[in-house]
Specification:
Elements (H helix, E strand, L loop, with lengths): L6 H9 L3 H23 L2 H18 L9 H22 L15 H4 L7 H23 L2 H12 L4 H8 L3 H26 L1
């Protein structure tokens, strides 16, 4: 089958029972969906799950695809919504600290290691880590319509047009939401940093 068939032709063929046509759509958009998911979730295993969830949902919803927007935009909107749901689930799930692994503190090998003062470097890393966590916290607190635009623009580096297509917005709406999201995060960080001093 011609890999250059238009998306809508492949959708029509899939709806008529030709499953290889849907496989072509999967091949065509898997890497893009994976990239989007990695950018939003920053976790490869979860991103791979989102790719599968996206195509399963798209296959189930294919009869209701309205064709008012490009197939790619429709598909990326399904993926974006799946990522946002995963992020909301993460926030509700308490984090479990990692158990200490490896050698016991009674082992000779551990006792004989030289002690190096890494306090200055550790302080810097802790500050950077704390600031990074605070930024993520503030991004997570944004209303969903602002958070999704910010994540796609600043973490995934999508163009304004790509974001507009994926979220079914106009480019000016995307720019406005992105500006408001960045201002909100910036103002929250300024307050946080001033409170720390």
């Amino acid at each position: 089958m011609n890999a250059q068939l238009h998306d809508l032709q492949l959708v029509d063929l899939t709806l008529s029972g030709d499953s290889p046509s849907f496989e072509l759509l999967v091949q065509r958009y898997s890497s893009g969906i994976l990239g989007l998911s990695m950018g939003m979730l920053r976790n490869e295993a979860e991103a791979q799950d989102i790719v599968q969830e996206t195509f399963l949902a798209a296959f189930r919803k294919l009869p209701s695809f309205s064709r008012t927007s490009p197939f790619r935009a429709w598909l990326f909107r399904i993926a974006t919504n799946a990522c946002l749901m995963r992020l909301r689930t993460r926030r509700r799930r308490p984090e479990v600290p990692l158990a200490l692994r490896g050698a016991s503190f009674d082992d000779d090998e551990v006792r004989d290691r030289p002690v190096i003062d890494r306090a200055p470097m550790a302080d810097k890393l802790l500050q950077d880590q704390e600031l990074g966590e605070r930024i993520r916290y503030e991004v997570d607190r944004l209303p969903e319509k602002y958070r999704s635009v910010l994540i796609l623009a600043d973490y995934k580096h999508y163009s304004m047009r790509q974001i507009a297509d994926a979220l079914e917005l106009t480019v000016p709406n995307v720019k406005t939401r992105l500006h408001r999201a960045r201002l909100a995060v910036r103002d929250a960080l300024i307050q946080y940093l001033e409170g720390e001093e």
